[in-house]
Amino acid sequence: MHGNYKLYSPTVLALTLATAFFLLAPVMFIVIYAFNDSSYFSWPMSGLSTRWFANFFANDRFMAAAKTSMTMGAIVTPLSLAIAVPTAYALVRCEFRGRELINALLMSPLLIPGVVTGIAFLIYLSNIGIGPGFTGLVIAMTCFSLPFAVRTLVANMHGLRPELEDVARNLGAGDWPVFWRIVLPQLRPGLLAGGTFVFVEAIDNFSISVFLSTADVSTLPVEGYSYIRDFDDPTVAAMAVVLIALSTALVLLAGRLVGLNRMFRIE
């Protein structure tokens, strides 16, 4: 590059910073509100307090919903990845009629509004005898979260060198050893990125969970919505901060294991 060439202009930089602030401002407000000493937000705040976090952890319904959300995420994540790995491999490595159609169908849940998807799952699961509840939530969230895992793994697969697989086969390795020892270790960034997205989506989804939750089985977002209908205090903001911290911790952990650059760029 020439010495006088600039990668960005001050206008672009200012617009980028303004956009980032606009996107992060609601999150920053939620964090500030969660530590507010008063039940109502005022500026300047009357003081700082962690009592709303204590209120959140002391609430039995929130803790039951947290257990449901975490258990569901722990089931949905490996289940989605188990389906996504062979799917991504087939979409990238195999040539067959209808491949593009299958790829489009797999991505379709990302294009359909969540409310429509939730109503569709409620009707379908009720008609086949499953109905709302934990099993219905797991099935619905697996189907809805699958595209996140497939997209990251497809991107990861495109970055692999098929010559390594050909060399292994030429040396006498079968298809399963090639996949297990050559392909799967290289999918580590995609597995971690896809697993993180799936887990966060599973525990954070509201538009689908609200249709499949029951009085006994409810997720954190649904329970938070029910809470704010009856109470007006920062407890739900404290819940949101806990979820933000959990999501951030998962991203940082995955980034430490494989590197944030590899995780999100899927090189």
UniProtKB/TrEMBL annotation:
Residues 66-254 form the ABC transmembrane type-1 domain. PROSITE patterns: ABC_TM1. Keywords: Cell inner membrane, Cell membrane, Membrane, Transmembrane, Transmembrane helix, Transport. InterPro entries: MetI-like, MetI-like_sf. It comes from the Bacteria. The chain crosses the membrane at residues 12-35, 70-92, 104-124, 130-154, 191-215, 235-258. It is a multi-pass membrane protein. Pfam families: BPD_transp_1 (PF00528). It is found in: Cell inner membrane; Cell membrane. PANTHER family: INNER MEMBRANE ABC TRANSPORTER PERMEASE PROTEIN YDCV. Belongs to the binding-protein-dependent transport system permease family. This is ABC transporter permease.
